[in-house]
Amino acid sequence: MQMTAFGKVYVTTKDKVFQPSNPFRHATELTRILRDYHSTDDVNLEKTILCLMTDGGPDHRVTYETVKTSLIQLFMQLDLDMLIAIRTAPNNSWVNPAERCMSLLNLCLQHCALDRKEIRPDFETKIRHKSSLNAIRNIAKVSPALKTAFGESMKPVIENVNDRFRRMKLKNVPFTVYKGISDEIIDDQLSIVPISTQGDADETVFNPTANSKDFRECKALQEFIKMHCSSTHYAFQIMKCREDPCRYCCINPWRTDEQRVEKLSFLPCPIPDESEQVYHSFEEASTLNLFSFNMTYYKTNFLEKKVDDSKRPSAKNSSDFDDFAVEFDRKNRDILKSQKIRDIIMCGECNKPRVIYSAKKLSDEQESLLNRMKEEGNFECGDSFPEDCGFTTKRCLSCTAEVEVNYYGASLRGIRVTCCIFCGNQDDLLVDTDPYIEKLYESFSVVRPICSTCRENGQEAKT
Ligand SMILES: [Zn+2]
Ligand SMILES: [Zn+2]
Ligand SMILES: [Zn+2]
């Protein structure tokens, strides 16, 4: 694609401790920008279709129920007819045009001192040796005044950073800066989802700290997703109903003109060419008619959930590792064994736990470093850790690889959550009294957990 327009850069600066990024904060802050600059009535988006392209961070993982819910919030707040949210595959943020402003943002932070103002001495003492964000947040739960004081002390830093960003331009268009939005407004904006989906009695589920499981159990929301959304590994798309509109779509009818609605379809998944090494370009795929914009196709492929995204990069063959990874695991074979297990880290891409190995017991410093990595949520199977950090996972692991048998060993007993060895799923595991599992226990002393979906797909339990 040729980029001719660069668009405008909006930057929101916030305090990472008490205004942490989460999908709902993103949706709310984006709604504010779009209403300020791209709305004629300060509520609805002027355009009726919105496409978002984000990087692969945990707040944008469109397979998470929290992220889906936040996108539905955005869709409803702006009365969109269609929302397409795609994220880049791991290590491919560079293809995202929005990422191009990053170098400019870095540039203007050169030689910028970022020290916050000191707060009350007793508060300073309390947070002095806290190395993770959660540790500080936990103290604030006990003494709420800390949160206010910390916010005050961060103000000059945020002002300072924003002042620098405000002076920047991209292709002569100046940046616009914002400060983080308050928790109350985020709560308030999210409430449109239970109200509009005629939420079941349990509206309390809808708060920014709810987890994916809470949303998965919310019937009205799931019904809305089933009726209006297409969900694949890298894309989540929402569209109003056409024939026979539901309650939401009756109250909020299409704003796009009728002829264009006819032609609308969800964006299909990339389609590999004959070599299976590269994907057809969008233009190629449409001229070759590899997907067609007709209603029958839309119904069978999207509404009935038969989307084939098996060609995505993270589903590539699990034995296809680069030489560095193979060499790394060979060199470290004395560490990558059950006696050296220290902890686990979750893969943000496939949600499977991966085992952390280290020659020695982790020091406090190493533990803080690892905890920060876990908080960031950016780890993906096979990733390398900083060379001198002293701990590692196996490098010859991809997201398609099973959970390591070592995960189920005795060393992780206290911290392990039981999950399916094939897919990492923690729900719907076959119980010991299941006839299939019971039968296996007659001949084997160990049967690894397996979920009902994997079993239905023909997997045999590991013994
Ligand atoms: Zn509808
Ligand atoms: Zn993974
Ligand atoms: Zn499974």
3D architecture notes:
This protein is of the alpha/beta class and 463 residues long. 36% of the residues lie in helices and 9% in strands. The chain has a four-stranded mixed β-sheet. The protein has a two-stranded parallel ribbon with strand order 1-6. The chain has a two-stranded antiparallel ribbon with strand order 4-5. Strand 2 (49-54), helix 2 and strand 3 form a beta-alpha-beta unit. Bound molecules: zinc ion (3 copies).
Structural class: alpha/beta
- Overall mean pLDDT: 85
Q: Indicate the overall shape.
A: globular
Radius of gyration (CA) equals 24 Å
Q: Which hetero ligands occur in this complex?
A: zinc ion
Continuous helix count: 18
Strand proportion, as a percent range, falls in 5-15%
* Count of individual beta strands: 10
Low-confidence stretches: 302-306
Distance between the termini: 50 Å
Strand order of the largest sheet: 2-3-8-7
Core attributes:
463 residues; alpha/beta; four-stranded mixed beta sheet; two-stranded parallel ribbon; 18 helices; 10 strands; binds zinc ion
